[in-house]
Amino acid sequence: MSRVLVTGANGFVGQALCRTLIERGHAVTGLVRHAGGCTMGVREWVQQSQDFIGLDAAWPAGQQVDSVVHLAARVHVMQDRAADPLGAFRATNVEGALRVAQAARRNGAARFVFVSSIKAVGEADSGLPLREDDPPRPQDPYGRSKLEAEQALVHFGEASGLDVVIVRPPLVYGPGVRANFLQLMNAIAKGRPLPLGAISARRSLVYVDNLADALLRCATDPRAAHGLFHVADGHDPSVTELAQALGKHLNKPARLIPMPARLLRTAGRLTGRSAQVERLVGDLRVDISRIRAVLAWQPPYSVDDGLAATARWYLSTR
C-alpha cells in the first residue's frame, strides 16, 4: 500500500483518480482549496492559499506521503480575461507546482507525478502521432506554462533527488466532463445540425478512468521512475466518428452536415475563430508506445466504453 497525496482531488480527474487509488488499497490524502467533493475514503486537507503559497509551513505534522500526483492547475480557457494570461498561468502552473514539489520533498515524498498536457508539445501533429521526444512547440499561454513547469520540476528533481514523473494527456472526457465536450453532447442531444459530417481529422482522447489507471501506475510503479509519458485511449476517432458514436449512445443520431474542412477554415478566419476550428479539422494524435513498453500499460477501457459511460451520465442528469 502506498500513501498518495492528490492535489485537486475534488476535481473531474481527481475524483476518478482517488476512487481508483482507494479501490486498489492505497491511502489517499486530497489537497483541495475548498472543502467537500472528495471521493469517500479520502482524507481531505483544505489549504486555501493562492497558488500553494505557504504550503510547506502549513504541512500537517505527521502527514507523510510516498508520492504526490499534482492535478491542480489553472486550466486552458477559450476566452481568457486575465490582463497577463501567461503570467497568470505561470503563477499557478509553474510556481504553484514547484511549491507543492518543494513542500512534498521536504516532508518525505519520494515521487512527484506532474499531470501536464499534450498542449505542452503542440496543437497538432505533423503527419505522425506526437512522441515524448518530439521538439515541443506550445502555441498558447497554457501550453507554454505546462512546458515551463515540466522543465522547472525536472531541474528541481535533479537537484533535490525527487523522482519527477510527467504525464501528458490529450482531451479528457468521461462522466462529469465540461467545456467543449459537454457542448458537443448538448448539441447532439438537442438535434442541432453540425457541420462535422466530412471531417477526417483524427484526435486522440483519453477516458478519465483510463487516465486514472495510468496515473496510479505512474505514482506507484518503480519502472515509472523519472519517466515522461503520453497517455491516450489507443484509438483515435475522427471528429465525424466521435459525433456519430455519441449520437448512438445518446439515442439521438447526430445530424451531421458534410461541410469540407477548407470551408470551415475559411469561416474560422472570417469570424476570428481559426484556433477553435483548427481543433476540429486538424489532426492531433498521441503516440502511447512508451508507456506501453515501459509500464506494460494498456488502456483498461475502449473509446466506446468511455463514450457509453459518458452518455449514460449525461442522460442521467437530464
UniProtKB/TrEMBL annotation:
Domain (NAD-dependent epimerase/dehydratase): residue spans on this chain: 4-224
Q: Report the SUPFAM superfamilies cross-referenced here.
A: NAD(P)-binding Rossmann-fold domains
Q: Which Pfam families match?
A: Epimerase
InterPro entries recorded for this chain? Epimerase_deHydtase, Lipid_A_modif_metabolic_enz, NAD(P)-bd_dom_sf
Q: Which domain of life is it from?
A: Bacteria
Q: What is the name of this protein? A: SDR family oxidoreductase
